[in-house]
Design goal:
Order of helices and strands: EEHHEEEHEHHHEE
Largest sheet: 8 strands, antiparallel
Number of strands: 8
CATH superfamily: Urate Oxidase
Helix content: 25-40%
Mean pLDDT: 91
Low-confidence stretches: none
Strand content: 35-45%
CATH topology: Urate Oxidase
CATH architecture: Roll
Strand order of the largest sheet: 1-2-3-4-5-6-7-8
Number of domains: 1
Structural class: alpha+beta
């Protein structure tokens, strides 16, 4: 049958990224405690398109993904990206895999178990020279108490939930759990899925005795990452959903240029 995608295009305009977005797909990721964890990812896959081609073959993205199923992990990204370039005759390729990751977390006093879900993202790209770039990201909910409010108030201090986006590049493999724990210990207090009254008392007092601005949180995380020789690049963003203001508080630190 006639292949329209392979027909020439005369507008002389190359396309940076063309492909598929938001493909839901079952994947298996490494779990520090259980070996593996099954989850469902949202996957984006792109390649560049030279100016002389009319289109790319969208179905080939899904076909290649199926060949690697279910082991869509960072260690497989280089192979997937190389295959994307070869099968689609592209100079560069990109893949983004976003998925919920679940960790069993016990309440601090009663030890009541519950599951916390964290959004994780793996980003990979390969350029025309075969250079592969891999970035791992975790999005972690936290709790923070305002140091200013605590200092000026006779009773109490305002607190809020926040969200931390941590991206890293590294020399050796790093566990998702390690990235999450690094973020959580930098907050005023962690967030839990199950809390009894004794637990609520504990975390309320812990947060009150450990007040932090978004500036404090982002700097504390950056200090830990700067001291880790395995980390070659990072960016960290902290956003607090303010409880007494009609705006959010935000801070961002990057150790260098953003990955391409």
């Amino acid at each position: 049958m006639k292949d329209i995608q392979n027909e020439p295009d005369y507008r002389n305009i190359a396309i940076n990224k063309v492909g598929i977005k938001d493909l839901r797909y079952p994947v298996t990721v490494l779990d520090r405690n259980r070996g593996q964890q099954h989850t469902v990812a949202s996957i984006n896959m792109y390649v560049d398109l030279p100016h002389e081609y009319k289109g790319t073959h969208m179905s080939r993205f899904v076909e290649m993904l199926h060949l690697f199923r279910p082991n869509i992990a960072l260690k497989k990204f280089s192979e997937i990206l190389t295959q994307m370039k070869e099968h689609l005759n592209a100079a560069s390729a990109h893949i983004e895999v976003t998925f919920p990751y679940f960790i069993e977390k016990k309440a601090p006093v009663t030890q009541s178990p519950g599951l916390m879900d964290y959004t994780c993202r793996l980003n990979g790209s390969i350029d025309c020279n075969g250079r592969v770039d891999l970035v791992s990201e975790v999005i972690v909910p936290i709790s923070s108490v305002c140091p200013c409010s605590r200092e000026i108030s006779t009773d109490g201090a305002h607190n809020q939930r926040g969200m931390v986006h941590l991206k890293t590049r590294f020399k050796k493999f790093i566990w998702i759990e390690d990235m999450i724990e690094l973020v959580e210990r930098s907050a005023s207090c962690e967030v839990y899925s199950v809390l009894k009254r004794a637990d609520e008392k504990f975390i309320t007092e812990k947060g009150y005795n450990n007040p932090k601005f978004v500036e404090d949180i982002v700097r504390d995380i950056a200090m830990d990452l700067n001291a880790d020789k395995n980390i070659t690049w990072f960016s960290v963003a902290v956003e607090n959903y303010e409880s007494i203001h009609n705006h959010n508080a935000y801070a961002f630190i990057s150790s260098g240029e953003m990955p391409g």
